[in-house]
Amino acid sequence: MRVRDFLKFALAIGIFALGTQLAPAADEAPVQIKALRGGTPVNLDNLPTASHQERDHPVSDRDFVQQPPLIPHTTSGYQITRNFNKCMDCHAWQKAKYSGATKVSVTHFRTRDGQELDNISPRRYFCTQCHVAQTDAKPLVENGFKRARGLQ
């Protein structure tokens, strides 16, 4: 057997062995991985989830410097796409006065280079990248996190 034929044979055996290890046995169901989005497509963002999102909380204290504020109300059904942002119905500067909502921070109108824009910076447009709704869900893991000393 030539070296080239041997390498082809070894590669075929390796691929076969790998495939049999990765494939579930006939009596086993395939492993189902549940993503944080729960299988919800991106264009259907923020639909109701299994944990209850409480409504109309007082504003929460922050636990570390530069922590984005938590959302004190439910965001179930809020649409945030590149063409529409439901959050801006209340939090846009021109609407916050009438809605009673907190205005979007001036930092959200700057590019990464510090240039001031007339509208929300594209990098800050998708609110739920940083801001999350308050919830009564129990922590998934225990931790010993302590608030920043200056915020205690």
Structure explained in plain terms:
This protein has 152 residues and is mostly helical. It has a domain at 42-140: Flavocytochrome C3, Chain A (Flavocytochrome C3, Chain A, domain 2, Orthogonal Bundle). Helix content is 20%, strand content 0%. The chain is built from three helices and no strands. It has helices at 3-22, 88-91, 93-99. The chain is elongated, with a radius of gyration of 24 Å. The N and C termini lie far apart (74 Å). The relative contact order is 0.14.
Approximate shape? elongated
CATH topology description of the domain at 42-140: Flavocytochrome C3, Chain A, domain 2
Which sheet architecture does the biggest sheet show?
none
Low-confidence stretches: 46-54
Report the order of strands and helices: HHH
The pLDDT mean sits at 79
- In percent, how much strand structure appears in the residues? under 5%
What is the CATH level 1 assignment of the domain at 42-140? Mainly Alpha
N- to C-terminal distance = 74 Å
**Based on the structure given, which CATH architecture of the domain at 42-140 is correct?**
Orthogonal Bundle
